[in-house]
Amino acid sequence: MKKILKRIILLSIFVSTISTVIAKDDNITINVYNWGEYISNGSDGGLNVNAQFTKETGINVNYTTFQTNEELFAKLSGGGANYDVIIPSDYTISKLIENDMLHKLDFNNIPNYNFIDNNFRNLEYDSKNEYAVPYTWGVVGIYYNKKYVNEREEDIDWNILWNKKYSGKILMFDNARDSFGISLIRLGKSINSTNEDDLHKAYQELIDQKPLVQSYVMDQIFDKIGNSEAVLAPYYSGDAALIMKNNPDIGFVIPKNGSIKFVDSMCIPKGAKYKEEAEKYINFMCRTDIALENISYIGYSSPQREVMDILSKDNSYNKFSYPDDDTIKNCEIFLNLPSEVNILLNSLWIEVKIGTDSNWILFLATILGFIILYISVYIYKKRKNKLFYK
Asked: How far is 166 from 153, CA to CA, in rounded Å?
């Protein structure tokens, strides 16, 4: 199957390169901000996508990465970053839209948007399809070690992460939205609940779980689950193929009592220097051969219709990366929460992580106070200098 995919990709690239008259945009560099390990870079013998874009257009790509949506938002809202293309997740996109931080896209420059499957249009975070073009998607599931977890796969749901039998061998997300999302699902609530009682109940469940948790992780899951240091962990479906390849004892299941669906999309932030070139880049990423290269490398699911058709012929993609419709219908996408709810959620998460010891809270508040004071003084001096030299 992989040989067939490679031939399809190489043929597509060859045809597109020789059949298109390309206007070279020399001496232009666009800044692209994406998740780590989230694009085909040629390291596995495949295509270096950014290099291919430069080869075809003459537009250089300065490519940098972030680890969380919160990091991306902080950089943009701080005003010191200058990006032309960013790839945030659903709830962050709605937050950026609400804060007037994204350009509306000119889809005349993105004709390959026509390849995006209808199931990924008119989504809640961009209901009019004005600001974002889907890049990848996936769902959250549970990774488990078959040697130590004796439950049948069909019986595994989120409750297993609270099972005392696996105390000290359970991992949990090291971010508030995913952890609270899982806890809310267990309670039969929406992952986007704004009800304070719901959030406090979810918080109490996470407090009850804490003594069972070995550690709160993100990418550390690869080593801990892969090396059997832990035997249960929630994480994203796109990593299933890699984790299970490295350790055949690992299984993956999407709980029947509901889960979290995520969509990462390409956007152009306000302040982008090269909007039209950024739209060319987005269009390029939606092209079938390029989208196939990216998905083949990173393992996540593609919203690109032709790529989905190609991959549907390979059964290894179906169960984990492309779950059935009934499973998807039982999943929710994160939406941006009202600011007061975000504040509550984050404060409760801090208590989960470090406890309710008032000295810790006071220490953290003091540190945050100094940081805010420093930033305020810095911005004030910078503005004063600008006024002085005008």
From this structure: 16
- This prediction has a pTM of 0.80
Q: Which two tokens stand for residue 107?
A: 């889809």
- Of 162, 165, 169, the residue nearest 187 (C-alpha): 162
**Residue type at 33 in one-letter notation:** Y
Q: How far apart are CA 238 and CA 225, in angstroms?
A: 15
Residues near 187 by beta carbon (within 8 Å), at least 6 away in sequence: 198, 201, 202, 205
| C-alpha to C-alpha distance for 112 and 72, rounded to whole angstroms | 26
Q: What is the pLDDT of residues 278-308, one digit of tens each?
A: 999 999 999 999 999 999 999 899 999 999 9
